[in-house]
Known about the structure:
By secondary structure, this protein is of the alpha/beta class. It contains 8 helices and 14 strands.
Amino acid sequence: MTPESTSTSSPHLKSQSLGPARLLAAALLFAVAAPFAIAQTSTMIVARAMPAKAKKGEVYPSLPALTQADIAEIKINGKTAAVTNLEPLLKGPHVLQLMVVLDSMEMIGANGQFDDLKQFFHDMPPNVEIGVGYLLQGNVKVAQPPTTDRDLVGKALHMQSREQAADPKNDNGNPYSCLKQLAYHWPSGDPAKLRAVLVFTDGITRGNGQTQAGDQLNPDVEGASQALQKEGILPFAFFYQDPIIPDPNRSEGGQLEGQTNFVQLAADTGGAALYDGLFAPSAFGPLLNRLYTILQNSTVITVNAPGASGKEMRLDIKAAREDIKVFAPESVTLGNVLKK
């Protein structure tokens, strides 16, 4: 018996049987009322416009921010979700926590790379909190939790020597395992804040015993994508591989493998793959400027989602214009951002 059930044995209730006409009327009433009984959960989606012919995850110029007129329909689990608000991601009313994560196996920081990063930090508007961490043995070691103190974040950047990068103790332990761990153990987690991660790595999976053909999806990337989507985290993967391999005995994959993994990650999650050619850039500025433009042109769409809070459901957004498509995660967790 459910909590809503009522016992007919109570002496205060008069036993009545429903005739065929009453049964039919009750059934019709339920059929009419049922659609309105579906929970409507306020849910936020970070999306951006892309050229209509662009393939998911590929590098294309970022288009201007979406407007209400650009969106024809949003469906969650096949049901229409009404749009209630559109706001900018940067310089908007919502706080964005951005974790910047460096690969412990790479010698990042030479030739002014950290200067480019610090400039990127200072360019971020006040509604962005920034943290720093390192990929280490399947986890993200947090060096600085998200904060608005740009100087404090800059001090958390530490360049590793060649010996440190080659030390087995500093093995990243699979960058996608690290991202999965970060998704479920976000530092200073606040359900009222949006989340994104900027990860610097070559994107190669090592020592996992998996064979990957060119036309197959990487299961490690798939696992990280699912975790990031479930927790509402946008990943931005910045391709970096030391020009000088720290350890000639280290098993190195190809640059194309890592970048292919990045494209898969971006396609699933609504993030972006940041690279320019097959080799790591010596200066980070141009790609960081590209990321700033992506963030600047991203829109926070609030919808009334049909379903209960906490459920992860498929997301489909149809553009109202033929020259664009709306790029967003493949799924969304309802009620993913809660008000304080």
